[in-house]
Fold this sequence. Notes:
The chain is an alpha/beta fold. It is built from one helix and 19 strands.
Amino acid sequence: MLRKNPRGDFPVVHETSFVDPTAILCGKVVVGENVFIGPYVVIRADEVDEHGDMAPIVIGANSNLQDGVVIHSKDGAPVTIGQNTSIAHRSIVHGPCAIGENVFIGFNSVLFNCVVHDYAVVRHNCVVDGQDIPSNFYVPSTTHVSPDTDLSTIPKVTRDARQFSESVIHTNVGFARAYRRIQNEF
């Protein structure tokens, strides 16, 4: 469902993208080409800053937001998801937050007040709060990354992890096309 926020902003979704009928996109949301937005995703751009302004929540081309992902932002801060990025089931991305291109975020992960740079992998059940993840870094499952985290303890992305991330992106771009094609069939 696409709907206005209290300020009157309405989501803009590229015609080549697919938004599941159970998903809710509210307010100043911009969805690029060939994006797959799965069941029960909630993207809410409805909070404003002290001046009544808000930055949009932007989802880049060929990205996918899988079942139950929640994206929101505090006080109208920006949230950007780069191109070719996967946000896996039930993850939460809360602004201010920027996720680069070709990034994989695993199941149930929570990201807040951070930047995850290009080609990074954040595996399942991680928390990234107040610390940026450099390009090509691999955050193992169940890791909590905070401002106190020594980033030298975090490994680089392996070839296997990169291939897995690319296969997830490829599958979900296909889903965007396939579900768009059948969306009005009963």
